[in-house]
Amino acid sequence: MGHTVNSCKRCSALSGFRRDGIAQQTLPTRSLGQAQAPPDGTAAAQAGRTARSVKERDAFFDNAKYLAIVLVAMGHAWEPLRDESRAVTALYMVVYAFHMPAFIVISGYFSRNFDASPGRIKRLVTGVAVPYIVFEVAYTFFTRWTDNEPERKISLLDPLYLTWFLAALFIWRLTTPFWRTVRWPLPLALGVAMLATLSPSMGKDLDLQRALQFLPYFVLGLVLKPEHFTMVRRREVRMLAVPVFLCAVVVAYWAVPRMNYAWFFHRTSAEELAAPAWYGPLMTLVLFGCSTVLVACFLSLVPRRGMWFTALGAGTLYGYLLHGFVIQAANHWHWSQIDWVHEPLGKIAATLVAGAVVTLLCTPPVQRMFRFAMEPKMDWAFRRDPAEAARSR
Questions:
Q1: What is the largest CA-CA distance in the chain?
Q2: pTM for the full predicted model
Q3: d(Cα 371, Cα 314) in Å, to the nearest integer?
Q4: In a domain, 51, yes or no
Q5: Does some domain include residue 27?
Q6: How many domains does the chain have?
Q7: Is-contact 17 107, C-beta < 8 A?
Q8: What tens digit of pLDDT does each residue of 118-132 get?
Q9: What is the DSSP code string of 8-30?
């Protein structure tokens, strides 16, 4: 949990998804039987409509989101411990190779039905745009204290700290109808990402470099079908996942002194990483292949049944955005300068504390406390959908 805003902007952070605003992760409404519904206006009819409106969450995806957000927090805990430990850096590289791609793939998968209808636009604004503005402002004021920069100005065009994901998600979801229309969406998205690595002058507006380089993972989620997730949960895949992760750690350990791990952040061009320009498109393809394999392995190991932490999967956006304040406060008090933290047991303790903190921030009481910022109703700001008004009549 130790790096300043400026240094953290060099790494990808996690995020979470809420039911309507970020990743609609619900299954089709359950059938209530074939009996004819009672006439409108009766108590039975109203109860039936209420029951039909309840959607069942998929425990698998909630579990995946929770486990991924825990890895995000642990990655932040390893941030100040990397330079002194090759093993920690190797684990850091492996985690950063798949935790953000996993979140983005899931987000894309549950954005397949985004059609720019009034209701979905409203949810996009209230679930993504408004939290982005609120936390961009909040982080600016908070980091004036933690980073001793009282003159830092609010800039809604230059995402600060963890808010880059919300800015990117807003862009991705607005372009969903386009990706659902073109014939070869994934190759086209990979081409866009490859070209982005050749554009060092792109600028910081909405962290567009990172939005474009992570775009293929979102588009991959758009083109996936339920049977693809069934395939990765097969027993054979689960058996292969552990040795694949072990091989990834070994390769990362070998690569630590030979590779710049900033490639996994997907936020700079090849030239800005002191590499020849042609490295950018090549690394885009290599990293996409490696990350996709690790995401599949990660998803294969995610429990399919309800667990004690399943309910926390609905609050990962809260854990994602709020744990940044804890990190910044810990940095301000220089937690990483404590000697025992750099011992093996200290590193393990820091890892466990990070996981515990983000778990606490995903709990229902925290959700209720901060729902005004994460899930504002804002009915006053939107015209009522004519179709919705007709249904209510």
A1: 72
A2: 0.84
A3: 12
A4: no
A5: no
A6: 1
A7: yes
A8: 889 999 999 999 999
A9: HTTS-------TTTT---BPPPP
